Amino acid sequence: MRHAIMMNIRARLAALACWAVAALVISGCAGTGPAATAGPGDETLLVQGLVQEISPATGVLAVKPSKEKAVSLSIDHQTAFSGVSSAAALQKRQRVHVWYRVEGDKKIAVRIEKMPDQGC
């Protein structure tokens, strides 16, 4: 009987640990992987970091990944937004994920997603 109770507790602790890890991964608090990675099935790249500079008037956004140089991106009328309505709603030090495509020497933002304001 006692052995069965201990096994039940271990199973519950293992399930709790799995849920905790999943919650950290989903929230973005447990490492976000490389700063620039290929997008799923297309020619887009992803940069994740903090807004270092934003200029809606000139269409320029600079994103600073942790431990890497800032990436300068161009925003145009086709750029989609999630978590904010437009480039004008972005502020410095907000955490973002930006999918972009490379055209010559320019990086064009395809989609900008403002991540929730949460601490770890």
Q: What name goes with the CATH superfamily of the largest domain?
A: Copper binding periplasmic protein CusF
What is the CATH C level class of the largest domain, in words?
A: Mainly Beta
The end-to-end span amounts to 40 Å
Care to count the β-strands? 7
Mean pLDDT, to the nearest integer, reads 78
**How would you sum up the global shape?**
globular
Explained architecture:
- The protein has 120 residues and is α+β, with helices and mostly antiparallel strands.
- The protein folds into 2 domains: 1-31; 37-114, Beta Barrel (OB fold (Dihydrolipoamide Acetyltransferase, E2P)).
- Helices cover 22% and strands 36% of the residues.
- Strands 1, 2, 3, 4, 5, 6 and 7 form a 7-stranded mixed β-sheet that branches.
- Strand 1 and strand 2 (45-55) form a beta hairpin.
- The chain is globular and about 60 Å long.
- The model is unreliable at 20-41 (pLDDT under 50).
